[in-house]
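Structure ticket #2291
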Amino acid sequence: MRSRARLRIAVVAAAFLVGAAGCSTVEEPVASTSVDDDPVAGMVQEPSRTLTPSPSPTRRGMCDDEGRPVQPTSITIPGVAQRAPVLSPPRDANGIPGVPPLSGEGKAAFAWDREQGIRPGDPRGNALLNAHTWPDGTALGNDLLIGLRKGDRIVVQGSGARLCYRVSERVEVMAADGLPRYYATDGPHQLAIVACSGRRLGPGEWEKRTVWFATLEDQPV
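Resolution: structure written out below.
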């Protein structure tokens, strides 16, 4: 039994390391070859564009159907992302959650893991999301790393309803260690968002993962 438990933990950690963190296993497009040649460019850098903070909207008129599970279509994070599309790519042959495509649309989108079987607004477990981090600093994951902090609001739009969450925890782990609780299917309902962080070790490989957990605004943190 113990060996089975260890094997399960190892598989979960491997999945977290390879795919669920929004890091592609192929090369990300870069602005120039100097990004790959410069070891400093492997760090998560602030994009050249400036993220303009915006005040959090009031709850009235925004979260008009809180508590009803939805299939997410877009996500807004004031000052970080405005109606970023949510895609639902399938898991790969190894059961690893899919990531957005390596394209202009994909780098600005979230991927939602439909096969986890948990939607935003469901009563229990984690709704899994991920976003790409690019070495030139221009992807959604880079914006999340710069701007998404504990206490910030996340607005999920879908199925004609909007759900408002607050970030309850931001944690960074080594990719090799993983974070099995990212995949939790029981316990209080949360959003669980992951992006690559730390040093870029090579094409599609990053040293760390940053994970944000967020709870519904009416739900105790």
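Closing remark: The two ends are 34 Å apart (CA to CA).
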